[in-house]
Amino acid sequence: MKSIRLALLGIAVFTLTGCGQSGVSEDEAEFAMGDRPKAFNQCASCHGIAPGAKLIGPSLAGVVGAKAGHVGDYAYSSAIRESGLVWDEASLDAYLTNPQAAVPGTKMSFGGLKDAQKRAEIIGYLKTL
């Protein structure tokens, strides 16, 4: 865990100092330095953040902007693969609120997160991965 934080800190410092305007919000920059939101702990019990990480669920690295059900070699449900979703803020917010309502038949057994602020923190963090 500490090595991941150090790697993220190094990437954040390199990105933020070498590129002028970084294009990330202040909150995203904070997350890029390894301070993931506490709300993400629920996600981390099943999802890795390193590319190709294999836990119960797929890695969340690069998920924002990706087509749902097509990140890495995870065995996604046909429901998520055929959903046509692209993971943006709106689709992630709906999915995190109630996965089964957003994509009926998804394999994700998480019941949903009702707190909008916590969902926003998670989505902000996912943007940094």
TrEMBL record:
It comes from the Bacteria. InterPro entries: Cyt_c-like_dom, Cyt_c-like_dom_sf, Cyt_c_1A/1B. The keyword Nucleus does not apply. GO terms for molecular function: electron transfer activity; heme binding; metal ion binding. The keyword Zinc does not apply. SUPFAM superfamilies: Cytochrome c. Residues 29-129 form the Cytochrome c domain. Keywords: Electron transport, Heme, Iron, Metal-binding, Transport. Transmembrane segments: none annotated. PANTHER family: CYTOCHROME C (PTHR11961). This is C-type cytochrome. It comes from Pontixanthobacter gangjinensis.
